[in-house]
Amino acid sequence: MIDFDVLEGEVKKGKFENSYIFCGLDEELIKEGIDLIVKKNIEDSLLDLNCIRLDGLTTTFDDIMNACETMPFMGDKKVVIVYRASFLKDKTDSAGTKLYNETLKYLKDLPPYTILIMYYLFNDKRDTPKKSNKVKALDKVSKVVHFDKLKKDRYYKKVEEVFKEKGKNIGKVEVRYFSEKVQNNFNIIIREADKIIAYTKDREITKNDIDKLIANSSEDDIFDLIDFISQKKVEKTLDLLYELLSKSDQHMLIISNIENNFKRLYEIKLFIQSGERVDGIASKFRLPSFIVEKLINQCNKFSLKQLQKIMEICLETENKLKTSGVDKNMEMELMIFNIFMTK
């Protein structure tokens, strides 16, 4: 198993495998990895003939095998790309399991003129290929590439390139500040860059602009936590809670942030019930409209009564931690379970 940096080094040396499994959260980065391999193996004039793309959600084993077995046209290599190949994930239906087993067996007998690239996207940032039994099996017959976070200097440079490609210059200090605040995912980075470019128009980008439009990463974690709660994902909620506690032993601050976020959902729900529109709510909370839309989606998962009760649970937990010598982690777990039990 390798990462993007190693893959790039191998491509530069002209070293290629017969098949690759790409995985990660960042689809833009994965596509860049695919482009590196394609450009080194297929001439631009022959792309339509020797680069085959198959939708991993609808493809069949026969589709994959037929694409791989067909000889390249006027070239030495052909590349077959199976994108969003969800059958590579551990949890799939019977059809996905069958397709995975057939493909796993076929990878041992690929024609030498074919490079097969299949990729799938993680469900969230806490997934890793090492947790997947299917990926472990694939790693024995194929080259698995994990598209994780880029190293700092390379990350900053690539973020700066995103702005330059859109015709917007950004200072070195500002690009680092932006890079540290935004989630390290180029699908998200591109959207956030578009938002800042549209907001600043013809003037220079400042730190103040970035602060106005991009939430802190800690706020993102709390948003994710509440999103998992709204979706009734107990295990993911607890995993994120433990991660937050491991980063910082600040139980009171975490509870306060959770309570404040649920309070905001309660207030937004009241505004919605009174007929307030998204733009009006965005103006009241000084938030971008797309963030408000996400918050509305969250608050729709709860009733006003539930939100009131959840805020009470947070307050009770906060008081316990202040006034007694209880096990803080245990009380935080209990708080999460009580929130899930709220009706």
TrEMBL record:
Keyword Nucleotidyltransferase listed:
yes
The record places domain DNA polymerase III delta subunit-like C-terminal at 219-338
Q: Has keyword RNA-binding?
A: no
Q: What class of enzyme is it?
A: transferase
Q: What catalytic activity is recorded?
A: DNA(n) + a 2'-deoxyribonucleoside 5'-triphosphate = DNA(n+1) + diphosphate
Q: Care to name a GO molecular-function term for this sequence?
A: DNA-directed DNA polymerase activity
Q: What top-level branch of life does the organism fall under?
A: Bacteria
> Which InterPro entries does this entry report, sorted A to Z?
DNA_pol3_clamp-load_cplx_C, DNA_pol3_delta-like_C, DNA_pol3_delta_N, DNA_polIII_delta, P-loop_NTPase
What is the recorded name of this protein?
DNA polymerase III subunit delta
